[in-house]
Specification:
By secondary structure, this protein is α/β, with parallel strands linked by helices. The chain has three domains: about 5-45 and about 230-300 and about 410-470, FAD/NAD(P)-binding domain, CATH 3.50.50.60; about 100-210, protoporphyrinogen ix oxidase, domain 3 (Orthogonal Bundle), CATH 1.10.3110; about 305-410, Protoporphyrinogen oxidase, mitochondrial, domain 2 (Polyamine Oxidase, Chain A, domain 2, Alpha-Beta Complex). It has 17 helices and 20 strands. α1 runs parallel beside α10 (about 230-235), α1 packs across α17 (about 445-470) and α5 runs antiparallel to α6 (about 160-175). It is globular, with a radius of gyration of 23 Å. The model has no long low-confidence stretch (mean pLDDT about 95).
């Protein structure tokens, strides 16, 4: 304790760590001193924007869910309310069977609820389409334990719905594979229905019917990109943010925690009353291995996918016609290098009216060989995709390649129980909390929720200790 002021160390300056620091300040004010340690030269983690063709464009996450309030509320609280932007369109497509086809209305993470809409989309072959309604007469596939997304969807609706609808949507979020991803963790509403509903088609229909029709846009972004959020949150938190500082070890002391930083030959120590670990699971496992080995062991089992985002800026004249959709997804069965395309300047009209700005995502788990190519080759792959699918001619005015190595945690079968075991192990250590994308959701609002919970746990600990010292 620094006089009557507790010191809380936050390890990691991604949006989770910064949000945790902000929540600490909001609840405790000047009673708590917060120091944020970040090993990289900048803050923000996967929220990062740089200029392409003179426009500030996100190199990582380019939007957040608008129908979950936490992200918008935090942006407003740190002074960015006027920068929140709605999309111009959220209409998207699937590249299937050699053509762009509209994503069917009324789907739930790729699971169709309307057979007529599915048929009109043309995404499935005639045989694949005929397989789907069998879901309504097949015996129940009641799920009592966590299973893979692939196992359940294939059993109910067949392989084509899985391969051409569910797989690309999941791949767009997790860069993972449906035969490994957890139904419970990645599709919780479908998983809940699977425990009691015989027909998946009927379950999806009920989910769609229960969704408010006037809920507003699904996504939102910030005028200068989601990459502008971390700096605003850091400033509003009042925390001492130290970049380029790696926390190598974490040890329990009689009064709190000791962090070991600095180079191995010249280690430095920092004393803290409490610690929030807000780094990816692999790094968190290393930090917790001595003091919370049970949590460390579970975290070490969480795999991560790598990917790259290739951003291209084309003159509008390079396109035969301006894209009408926000983007499209590509199923792995199509065998293409690019797994998703976002037409950023169409989705977010405030970005540019003179250029077509777009992002191509490359790489899923198991496709690391693609990412071994140099930047020029990745740009060529993205340009070839645009030429083949969109008829683009000529060269882009500007390009950017951003590599995200080990960026996306895989919510494999058993993930929910694994996270519960991590939290149980951490809860046995006073003054320690964890948060981040590895636990309860990859999106920005989900990360903010984990940060708020972590901050709450730390403040509860400090309040109890103050009561004992009084």
């Amino acid at each position: 304790m620094e006089g009557n002021r507790a010191h809380v160390a936050v390890i990691g300056a991604g949006i989770s760590g910064l949000a945790a620091a902000w929540h600490l300040r909001q609840s405790a004010g000047e009673r708590v001193k917060v120091t944020v340690f970040e090993s990289s030269p900048r803050i923000g983690g996967k929220l990062y924007a740089t200029e392409v063709a003179g426009v500030s464009l996100d190199a990582g996450a380019e939007a957040m869910l608008a129908r979950r309030p936490e992200g918008k509320e935090l942006a407003a609280a740190v002074g960015l309310a006027d920068d929140l932007m709605d999309p111009g369109t959220t209409s998207s497509a699937i590249y299937s069977r050699g053509a762009l086809r509209p994503l069917p209305k009324g789907q739930v993470m790729g699971v169709p609820s309307d057979l007529a809409e599915l048929a009109r989309s043309g995404i499935l072959s005639p045989a694949g389409l005929l397989r789907v309604p069998l879901d309504q007469i097949l015996p129940a596939t009641l799920v009592r334990t966590d299973v893979s997304v692939a196992a359940y969807i294939r059993a109910r609706m067949g392989g084509e719905v899985l391969d051409r609808l569910v797989e690309p949507l999941l791949g767009g979020v997790y860069a993972g594979r449906s035969d490994h991803l957890s139904l419970e963790a990645t599709m919780p509403r479908i998983a809940a229905a699977a425990r009691g509903e015989r027909s998946l088609l009927a379950a999806a229909r009920h989910i769609v019917q229960d969704t408010p029709k006037d809920a507003g846009p699904v996504f939102t972004t910030l005028r200068n990109g989601m990459g502008s959020l971390p700096e605003a949150v850091a400033k509003a938190s009042g925390a001492d943010v130290r970049t380029g500082v790696t926390v190598r070890e974490l040890h329990r002391t009689e009064t709190g925690w000791r962090l070991v930083t600095g180079p191995v030959p010249r280690p430095e120590t920092v004393e803290a009353d409490a610690v929030i670990v807000a780094v990816p699971a692999t790094a968190a496992s290393r930090l917790l291995k001595d003091e919370v080995p049970a949590a460390a062991g579970e975290l070490a089992r969480i795999e991560y996918a790598s990917m790259a985002v290739v951003t291209l800026a084309y003159p509008a004249a390079a396109f035969p016609e301006r894209p009408a959709r926000s983007g499209y997804l590509v199923p792995p069965v199509e065998g293409r290098a690019v797994k998703a395309v976002t037409f950023s300047s169409v989705k977010w009209p405030h970005l540019s009216r003179d250029m077509i700005l777009l992002r191509c995502s490359i790489g899923r788990i198991g496709e690391e060989h693609l990412l071994q190519r140099d930047d020029a080759e990745l740009v060529s792959l993205a340009m070839a995709e645009m030429g083949d699918v969109m008829g683009v001619r000529g060269l882009p005015a500007d390009t950017r390649v951003t590599r995200w190595g080990g960026a996306l945690p895989q919510y494999d079968v058993g993930h929910v129980d694994r996270v519960a075991r991590v939290h149980a192990a951490v809860s046995g250590q006073p003054g320690l909390a964890v948060c981040g994308a590895a636990y309860d959701g990859l999106g920005i609002p989900a990360c903010i929720v984990t940060a708020r919970r972590a901050a709450g746990r730390i403040l509860d600990h400090l309040s109890r200790r103050e009561g004992q010292d009084a």
